[in-house]
C-alpha cells in the first residue's frame, strides 16, 4: 500500500481523506469536527441543519406559515441558524486541525440565501464549500466573495467543462478541487445523465481521467479531484495514488462514515447497516428532485415501487386504445382507459386501493384511502425545500409552482429525511446509503458490533484498510 501523503486542500496540507456531506442533519458539526480533528476534511451539511435551544435540545423544524412562500422563508431561516450553529460546533471540535467544508445542494430551496447566511454568520470558520445536485454556476462567485474555496460536485467531464466555461474560469484562484461523484455507486442523489444507463455502470477511472484531461485542457489549476462513491479500502485504489494521468486525488467517504460514535444517526440505523447485503441499495427515480438517488430497499422504498406499479394511462376524452370508461373519485367522474387498464383498476380497487390519483404523465396511480390522505396532506404542507418539487409542484419562482400537476408517485423528501434523522423508523422513511453499504457486514473493523470514533476510522483508512 502506498503512503497517503497530505495534499493542499483549502489552503492547508491535510490528509486527502474527506467525510462526504450527507443531507438533512446527518453530517453535523460533531461528526465533521471530529473528522477534521483527525487531520482530514470534515463536511457539515447545511441542508436543513439542526439548531438548539438554551438547554442544548434540538429545535423541531415546525412551520407556522399559512402559505408555501411563508413556510419557505421559515425554512431559509431555520437553515441559516442551523448551519451557523453546526459550523461553530465543528470549529470547536476540530481545534485548528484539518479543514472544514459546508455542503449545500444547488437545487435545494433557498440555496443562495442559506449559503450566504451561513458564510456570513460563521465568518472565517469555513474553509470550503461543496455544492452539487444541479449546475451550481453561482457558487464560485459566492465563495470568492467570502474568500473560501469552492468544490463543485460533478459526475462527468462534460458538466465541469460547462461550469468552467460559463463561470468558474472567472474565479479560478478559489477553485479548491472538483468532487467526482460516481453516479452508479454514490449514496443520496446521483448525477446520471439521460444518455447513461442506470443499469450499466461505467468504471470510474476512465471518467476521472477524462475529467482531469478537460481540467488541464481548459487551463484549470491542478487541484485535487475528490473520488466520491464506492470508496471503502484505499488499498483497492492504490493505482489512483501518485498517478500522473489523474493528478492529485483525495478520497471521499460518505457511507463508511455513518457508523462512528460521532455520527448522529439513530442506534436502530447503526444496527441495520451491518445487516445489509449486496443489492440491498436501490438506484431509483422516485425523488421529487427528478434526480436518480440511492437508498436502502426498506418498506418505504418497496411501497413506492408498488405504488408506481399500480398505474395505468388515462384520457379525459376517449381516443383509440383508451376508450373504456372508468368512474373515479367521490363523484364518479369518468375517464377513459384501455380495456386492460380497466381490468387492472377493478382488481386494485377490490383489493382496497380505491383512490385513483392523477399524475403529470396522464396516468392514474391507485392507493388506499390512508395513503391518499397522507399524500394530499404532505402536498398541502409543502414548505418549498427544493427549488422545484415534482411531488408538490412547488417552484422557487414568482408563480410559486412549476406549472405541472403534483406527482403522487413521489414523496415529501424534507419530511422523511427529517423523520429518519431524528430517530423515526428506518423502515418507514428514506434511508440513503451508497451501494457499498453491504461491506459493513464483512469489514473486520466493524466486527462484533464495534462502532469506532471518527478519529479511529480515519486512522484505519490511512493504513489502506
Instruction: Tell me the helix content.
Output: 25-40%
The CATH class label of the largest domain is Alpha Beta
Q: How many strands appear in the DSSP assignment?
A: 18
**Main beta sheet, described?**
8 strands, parallel
User: What is the SS-derived class?
Assistant: alpha/beta
Structure in words:
The protein is of the alpha/beta class and 465 residues long. The chain folds into two domains: 7-276 and 439-462, Aldolase class I (TIM Barrel), CATH 3.20.20.70; 299-421, no CATH class. Helices cover 31% and strands 17% of the residues. It contains 13 helices and 18 strands. It has helices at residues 23-26, 29-37, 68-94, 111-121, 139-145, 157-166, 204-218, 267-272, 299-309, 339-350, 369-380, 413-421, 454-462; strands at residues 7-9, 12-14, 17-19, 41-45, 99-105, 128-132, 149-154, 178-181, 188-190, 225-228, 249-253, 281-284, 292-296, 311-313, 324-328, 333-337, 355-358, 363-367. The strands form five sheets. Strands 3-11-10-8-7-6-5-4 form an eight-stranded parallel β-sheet. The chain has a three-stranded antiparallel β-sheet with strand order 9-13-12, with no helix packed on it. Helix 2 packs parallel to helix 3 (68-94), helix 3 (68-94) runs parallel beside helix 4 and helix 6 (157-166) packs parallel to helix 7 (204-218). The radius of gyration is 23 Å and the shape is globular. The relative contact order is 0.13. The mean pLDDT is 94.
